[in-house]
Amino acid sequence: MASLSFCTDCNNMLYPREDKERRVLMFACRNCDFQEDAENSCIYRHEVMHIPSEQTMVITDLSSDPTLPRTKEVPCPKCDRAQAVYFQSQSRHADTRMTLYYVCSNKTCQHRWQS
Questions:
Q1: What is residue 102's three-state secondary structure?
Q2: N or C: which end of the chain has fewer CB within 10 A?
Q3: Which residues are CB-neighbours of 34 under 8 A, at least 6 positions away?
Q4: Residue 25, helix vs strand vs coil
């Protein structure tokens, strides 16, 4: 993982720069002429965080999971079956409200929706 580097001459932050002749990544100071070769070619790393509704699309057979609770009070909006499996959003963000996700228990339907 990339980290911040600082100039040994003037203690300012070093910025990434390409040495076009040698085709090497370097870090250079913008205030003086100090330069050093980068130990790692990674400048920035972007990690994708999936929201709970995206995570449910990864699991294929939620309706047969015996650990999930079932309800007969919320019918499927697609096939009108009276039984569905439900679970709560796993989001830990303070600004998100509690969301219930439902999966139809009909093997041919498997429709997914949220409250």
A1: strand
A2: N
A3: 7, 8, 9, 10, 14, 28
A4: strand
